Amino acid sequence: MRTRWVFVKKGDKARCRLVAREFTGIDKREDPNAGTPPLAATRYLLSDSVSRGRRNKRGKLMVVDVKRAFLHGYCTRSIHIELPGEESQRGTHLGKLVRALYGTRDAPLAWLSVVKSGKKEMGFEECKVTNGVFTHPVRGLRAVVHVDDFLMSGEGHQLQWFRDHLTNTYELKVQVAGWAHGDFQELQFLGRVIRLTQTGIELEGDDRHVEMMEKELDMILC
């Protein structure tokens, strides 16, 4: 399998990532695919967080983004890749993946296995109906997991417990919002803005999706 370096610029920071180039259609298997929760799961969590007590100032929402998540999963297949640059000794050496690599079909599934195992060890229970939805019956936490993005609801100290637990293993980007004085009232999840107000929670759509639809339907000038 061939590889290449991909350069990404976010804000004033630039980074590069080695990714594999696996073509879909060669392998007809469907089992390497990993499901993701529907938008309805996010709406449920937000509605539940309000129903459980907007007046409880200890209630918070938290978004956790795990950096380089796919590299923590183990490969579910035997995959050999082209090594970059001098590592390949002019194309005479290949590498066999132990950990999953971005661009391989089963990388999301490998990471999902890590998530499920970690959640179980922490005492979470997975929803039997919807994939990627978890609850903690003792600590009162709710979670919607969309690949490497976690949307959590619960009391502040319980969310901090979860964050501290993950920090021992992963590098995280964390956002927290709440109704208490001094709390942030906005956070972003999957490109959507979640805004906490005195009357409830507003979920703002992703403008990028609108732009894509306008281009697809040739309605930019409408």
Plain-language structure description:
This protein is of the alpha+beta class and 222 residues long. Strands 6-7-8-9-3-10 form a six-stranded antiparallel β-sheet, sandwiched between helices. A hairpin with a 2-residue loop joins strand 11 and strand 12. It is globular, with a radius of gyration of 20 Å. 22% of the residues are buried.
Radius of gyration computed on alpha carbons:
20 Å
Please mark out the parts with pLDDT under 50 across 5 or more consecutive residues, or reply none. Answer: none
Number of strands: 13
- Secondary-structure element string: EEHEEEHEEEEHEEEEH
Describe the largest sheet.
6 strands, antiparallel
Return the structural class: alpha+beta
Summarize the structure.
The protein is of the alpha+beta class and 222 residues long. It contains four helices and 13 strands.
